Amino acid sequence: MSSNGMLSAETLQRDERKASEDRARRADSLRRVLQNLGVFVPFVAVLVAGIAIAPNFLSPSNITNMLVNASILGVVGFGMTVVIAVRGIDLSVGSAQALTCCLVAASVNGLSPVGGVAVGLVAGAALGLINGLVTTKLRVPGFITTLSMMSVYRGAALIFTGGAPIIIDSVGFKGIATASVAGIPLPFLLALLVGLAFWFVLERMRSGRYVIAVGSNPEAAIETGIGAQRVILWAYVISGVCAGVAGVVLASQLGVINASVSTGLELRAIAIVVLGGTSMAGGRPRVVGTAIAALLLSMINSGLNLLNVVSAYQYVALGVLLVLALGIDSGQRAAVRKMLEGRGTEQ
Amino acid sequence: MNTQETSKSAELKPALHPRRAQADKWKQLLAKNYLVVILVVLCATMGILQPFFLSGGNISNILFQAAFVGLAGCGMTILIAGGMIDLSESGVVAIAAIAIAIVLPSTTIGGALTMALILGAGLGLINGLLVVYVKIPPFIATLGSLYLFLGLAFISTGQKVIPIVSTNYLMLTTGSVGLLPVPFVVFVLCAVITGFILHHTYFGRAVRAVGSNEVAATLAGLPVRRVKLLAFVFAGLTYALSAVFMSGRLSSAEGNMATGFEMNVIAAVVVGGTALRGGNGTVFGTAAGALLFAVINNSMNLLGVASYWQYVVTGAVLVLAIALGSARSGGSMIRGEG
Q1: pLDDT by residue (tens digit) across A113-172?
Q2: For residue B284, is it within any domain?
Q3: A27 touching chain B per CB within 8 A
Q4: Taking the domain A30-51+64-303+312-335, which CATH number applies?
Q5: DSSP character at residue B306
Q6: Residues in a beta bridge with B181
Q7: What CATH number is attached to the domain comprising B180?
Q8: Which residues in chain B have their CB less than 8 angstroms from residue A150's CB?
């Protein structure tokens, strides 16, 4: 520094500011690249591998199948995206979906198909509301609330069915999952619509900004007058409704409902959300990423099925994928932090 | 520092009359051990409602159940005291038990046990590496490894049940010492050792320091990474022990043998009084919690309640215990959440 003694403090300051701006910009672009890398590279790789290895991967029936499965998973993932964006987590989606499925099946048989759909939505919202209320009012951490409710809802589903499967009679209701509009499966259109709504709310509306504010920095959000607790409560309700909506489609697809459906769904939902680039640190929802990751997961499952791989390997694939996604997420955060801090070499 | 001082002064405050102090002491003891009180009341009530409840066979049944959960609970107590959590127990238990079932016909019991323990420690190490070096929050890292382990378990068994026929092994794991079943005796031993480790060793103190304030522990120069790794390895060992006795009790092993086990273990630890916030743990509480859930489940069975209700009750009791805890401590600062 002694040789640059002629430089005024002002120039130094300007240079420093410019350098840090530059660093911030580079860090941001690095983050974006890493986030996209996490989902697009596997997506393309699996797509190519699927077309190359798996027989009938691109047959119309398999494409429809993959789209419907991705839709059912994706809708749950959208709800999970919001919950994770506010630094929560919902481990109860699988059990909540099982319970709604059972209620839907019983009410389709007892009332009417329309009644069944309504019951599905209301039940999903109610279960989400329980999660939200316990988390915000009783101040139980979200992952413990939903871990407990995972057990409670599953138990409730088993008690409700008595362990016996419920067979849905209505042909019309079972048609929801198989119907298509202009060649596009109805569930996929539904998921597209839901995804679009989520994207719009999160990117363009004030409530979406609230979600991002609460997730990025809860204390600051509260200081600015945002009801953080209410935002978190709503996030859990939304996740419940999403599980319910997906549950209705799933019930229609399966036709026979067991209390043990959707076991392990929470893991798949979390996996697609994190793979899609939503950070576990909160404040960064990426609905588009979630949707692509849902397609990715559904392609993997379908590919493994077509190749007659034992279903147990799907567990392993899922676990590896989740760990990979989380590793990228934390690695990305570390890389960005390092970049913003200027690698710690210049003091 | 500040909060510690204030809490200390709050503790010192009730130094009034000797008699009053004595009464307060009793009250505190009762408040601290309210779980034991609940347990005794529950047992007495059940004994009146169903005299069969207090029969020797049934009591040993309860002790068996409590031992499985309690053994794994020892490791979980250390983890939670260190501000971490582990959801992968059922995977570790399945793999350890399956390994025993597979190798038992061709090796000695000692060899099989050693192998199970090494496997448990190894799987715990994997969890630890994911948390410490890949920097994934514990609960989600172990959720991922749970499915990884379960998948491996299913693959290695071809989704079948593997029977254990060695009568010596079954005798060893389900026999009894005097009146107490072997698993329970081992559990008590393990609990004593865990309590000693947690409260009287360098490792235990480091675990609690990491759990109460990881940044401070790092700044104080504690080997935080090594402590976390060791905590996961220790937990893996206790799960493997639990697997040894569970496989003996079932006289078989399969991928699904311990599904939902993690819920019971976490519930026992937390209901026992180890705060999820980390920083401290009570193995005695964990033991009481394990016994409590064993008694509740056994009572519901005896009273003819559908077994499905156990899911509901376990979940509800867990939420209730944490809600009460956070209402009492006036904050829900929970570590290991993300």
Answers
A1: 888 899 999 999 999 999 999 999 888 888 889 989 998 999 999 999 988 899 888 888
A2: yes
A3: no
A4: 1.10.3470
A5: -
A6: B176
A7: 1.10.3470
A8: 263, 315
